[in-house]
């Protein structure tokens, strides 16, 4: 992104100048999928694709938003106190919700401002464009209005926006991964205790390749909420006999002994994914730290199989990309990431083999599905900051 071009866009749009530009990353997740609302571990990292915002405080009460990604909206203007959900311009709700939450957290209302946005995260691709924009807004308000709010509180505010304002029952992983991101490190978070540690991403000659199915998401939110409800139901049944707080409390052996309490094939599969994936994530952090990349790759592969068959959140397009990646002996591991039903997969691959793989998988994908997949190398970066 060229900062000067971006600032020129701000000036041309709002007829005013600023030099304040912030960046907020998206995220990938190495492993630990659908564990964050089950009291389990996650192992994500922030990536160099994300959302940019140029900002200037106004001296009136108007909030004015413009996004290069949705130019058809034009400049969206509203009073600083008019923060109700906007049914027409849905993209603005991540910002409205965050303004509301940051205002509650700081106990102050903000003056008006101009915000010019642009993002290079593909929409709905499972790379957390929504958390990226939420953490961007939270960080800008925190810095520019000198609120001194702790990053973890901004993370929680973003989760409240998703849960209460947007209406998706997501866990905390995405906002945490974005806000707490560290260059070349993955964040190992226990979503039960909220304790976290960083682990260096030392992959030798390998890189992380993001493979975007470009499959449009449909009905994603309702299926996401359904999976969550199924895990809650399984937990409720187990808790009739065993005192645990979440599925994340169970080891694999304990779970195997308790399945008769659930007594429903679908619920057993959902809960099994949550329990096994949590244990895989703990193992994956250990193997990565030990430099045991072969074992790490196997855990990544096992995660995909579990998401495909037990949790049933994959899609033929994701399975195809992952299965093709598995065929290459240059790929250590590959799996779908994020909520699922479309979006992206990752492959951990020898960097010298990337071009060939992109070419071969790309052309077979297009032959099969009639449209192209996209490939990007993941660069692991810091959380939101001024640039
Ligand atoms: C989505 C949610 F927002 C996260 O909280 C997480 O549950 C993820 O799906 C699945 O691991 O990205």
UniProtKB/TrEMBL annotation:
Signal peptide positions (record): none
Nucleotide-binding as UniProt keyword: yes
The protein's Enzyme Commission number: 2.7.1.6
Residues reported in the UniProt entry to bind Mg(2+): 130, 162
The keyword Metal-binding is annotated on this UniProt entry: yes
All copies of domain Galactokinase N-terminal, residue ranges: 10-55
Principal subcellular localisation of the protein: cytoplasm
Compartments, record wording: Cytoplasm
InterPro entries: Galactokinase, Galactokinase_bac, Galactokinase_CS, GalKase_N, GHMP_kinase_C_dom, GHMP_kinase_C_sf, GHMP_kinase_N_dom, GHMP_knse_ATP-bd_CS
Record Pfam families: GalKase_gal_bdg (PF10509), GHMP_kinases_C (PF08544), GHMP_kinases_N (PF00288)
A GO term for molecular function: ATP binding
GO CC, any one term: cytosol
NCBIfam families: gal_kin, PRK05322.1
PANTHER family: GALACTOKINASE-RELATED, MEVALONATE KINASE/GALACTOKINASE
Protein name as it appears in the record: Galactokinase
Originating species: Pediococcus argentinicus
């Amino acid at each position: 992104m060229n900062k000067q071009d971006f600032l020129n866009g701000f000036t041309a749009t709002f007829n005013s100048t600023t030099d304040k530009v912030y960046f907020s990353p998206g995220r990938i997740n190495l492993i630990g999928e659908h564990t964050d609302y089950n009291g389990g571990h996650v192992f994500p990292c922030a990536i160099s694709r994300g959302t940019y915002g140029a900002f200037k405080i106004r001296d009136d009460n108007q909030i004015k938003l413009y996004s290069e990604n949705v130019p058809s909206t034009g400049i969206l203007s509203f009073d600083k106190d008019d923060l109700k959900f906007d049914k027409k311009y849905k993209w603005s709700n991540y910002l409205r919700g965050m303004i509301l939450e940051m205002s509650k957290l700081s106990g102050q209302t903000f003056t008006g401002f101009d915000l010019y946005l642009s993002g290079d995260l593909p929409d709905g691709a499972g790379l957390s464009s929504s958390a990226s924009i939420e953490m961007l807004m939270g960080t800008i308000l925190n810095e520019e209005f000198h609120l001194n709010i702790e990053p973890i509180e901004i993370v929680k505010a973003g989760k409240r926006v998703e849960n209460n304002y947007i209406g998706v029952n997501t866990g905390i992983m995405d906002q945490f991964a974005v806000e707490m991101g560290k260059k070349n490190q993955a964040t190992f978070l226990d979503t039960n205790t909220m304790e976290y540690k960083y682990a260096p991403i030392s992959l030798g000659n390998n890189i992380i390749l993001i493979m975007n199915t470009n499959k449009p998401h449909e009905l994603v939110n309702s299926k996401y909420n359904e999976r969550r409800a199924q895990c809650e139901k399984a937990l409720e049944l187990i808790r009739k006999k065993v005192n645990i707080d979440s599925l994340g409390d169970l080891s694999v052996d304990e779970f195997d002994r308790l399945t008769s309490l659930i007594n429903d094939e679908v619920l057993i599969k959902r809960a099994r994914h949550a329990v096994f994936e949590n244990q895989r994530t703990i193992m994956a952090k250990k193997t990565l730290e030990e430099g045991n990349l072969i074992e790490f790759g196997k855990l990544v592969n096992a995660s995909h199989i579990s998401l495909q068959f037990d949790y049933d959140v994959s899609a033929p397009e994701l399975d195809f990309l992952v299965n093709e990646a598995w065929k290459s002996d240059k790929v250590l591991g590959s799996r779908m990431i994020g909520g699922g039903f479309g979006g992206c997969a990752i492959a951990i691959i020898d960097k010298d083999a990337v071009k060939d793989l992109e070419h071969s998988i790309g052309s077979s994908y297009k032959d099969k599905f009639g449209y192209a997949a996209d490939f990007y190398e993941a660069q692991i970066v810091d959380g939101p900051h001024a640039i």
